[in-house]
Amino acid sequence: MTDNSELRELAESIFADARDAGTGFDAELWKTLEGTGLARLTLPSDAGGSEGSFSDAAVVLAEAGAYAARVPLVETDLLAGWLLHAAGIGVPAGPLTAVTATLDVEGSTVRGTLQRVPWARAAAGIAVLAPHHVVLLGPEQITVTDGSNLAEEPRDAVVVDGEVPSGAVAAVPEGATQEFRLRAALGRAQLLAGAARGALAAAVRYAGERVQFGRPIGRFQAVQQQLALAAAEVAAASAAASAAAAAVTADGFADPASRLAVAAAKARTGEAAGAVARIAHQVHGAIGFTREHDLRLLTTRLWAWRDEDGADAEWNSEIGAAALAAGPEGLWPLVTGRP
């Protein structure tokens, strides 16, 4: 892969050109991401991937979040593609999604209902992580009922009741359940960090343009103070997300320090989401709440994503439990990753 600065420039140019106020899957953007190798960035080449690192993925996902990209990058690359490949199931072409659920699996007969599946209506395949099986569902085997999250991203209900092709069912790989959860949280944290940065940029831009009492509102001390607070939240969120990606790139998801870093990243980016969204709307005033204003594309994602793949309280509880389990002698090595 290219180095991160070049990768960031490429991703930013792609997502900036594609940004619009639409809803649903952006097929044209996805085609571009497939063509540039960014759609399956971390997958091995035999799964159609580019063999990039999680740090590479963090760069791309942050830009996707900053420009409110309408594509299932986390679901295709970090979740479905990885899970299917790890289980020995062929990875289909096109956008994918993944979910954990309970299914009734008897041979090649699969029955069950999946709730709030991201991007299901646009997916070429749904990878389901059931308690004992990994199952690949194709569009022809399911019935989809449209749903959405607060940001109007697809979160669909899916019903399956019938036969799936040979080779579409496999045993769950060892450790896959825990890794799936960590991968989802890591990807969501990168998106949150990017969306927070995008919301801050929009607020700073508006503060420089909006004139009140003869001067831009960005010159008022109260506004400057709020923007500084938002900038601090963005910096903390970005640092936590980047540190988690670096830890996983270096040591994998099984390492205790990596698990702690992912938990901290999801908790910290979720906390920043609320603060940054509030300040961005305060700076914009009433106009920022209207459907016609692009700020909502970012703030509704911040509100929706902070509760997906584990809310702040869940991950903070996990951090606290890890610290207690480490004890006085083990806390410093746990936090630093060093003996």
Shape: globular
Overall structural class, as computed from helix and strand content, comes to alpha+beta
Q: Numbering strands along the chain, what is their spatial order in the largest sheet? A: 1-4-5-8
Radius of gyration from CA coordinates: 20 Å
Give the SSE string. HHHHEEEEEEEEHEEHHHH
What is the level-2 CATH architecture name of the largest domain? Beta Barrel
Organism: Pseudonocardia alaniniphila
Protein name: Acyl-CoA dehydrogenase family protein
Keywords: FAD, Flavoprotein, Oxidoreductase
Domain Acyl-CoA dehydrogenase/oxidase C-terminal: 191-300
Sum up the structure in keywords.
339 residues, alpha+beta, Butyryl-CoA Dehydrogenase, subunit A, domain 2, Butyryl-CoA Dehydrogenase, subunit A, domain 3, 54% helix, Acyl-CoA dehydrogenase family protein, flavoprotein, AcylCoA_DH/oxidase_NM_dom_sf, AcylCoA_DH/ox_N
Please provide a written account of the structure:
- The chain has 2 domains: 4-171, Butyryl-CoA Dehydrogenase, subunit A, domain 2; 176-336, Up-down Bundle (Butyryl-CoA Dehydrogenase, subunit A, domain 3).
- With 339 residues, the protein is an alpha+beta fold.
- Strands 1-4-5-8 form a 4-stranded mixed β-sheet, covered by helices on one side. The chain has a 4-stranded antiparallel β-sheet with strand order 2-3-7-6, with no helix packed on it.
- The model has no long low-confidence stretch (mean pLDDT 95).
- It contains 9 helices and 10 strands.
- Strand 2 and strand 3 form a beta hairpin.
Secondary-structure blueprint:
Elements: H1 4-18, H2 27-36, H3 54-66, H4 73-87, E1 96-100, E2 104-106, E3 109-118, E4 125-129, E5 133-137, E6 142-145, E7 155-163, E8 169-171, H5 176-209, E9 211-212, E10 215-216, H6 221-251, H7 256-284, H8 295-305, H9 312-336
Parallel strand pairs: 1-4
Antiparallel strand pairs: 2-3, 3-7, 4-5, 5-8, 6-7, 9-10
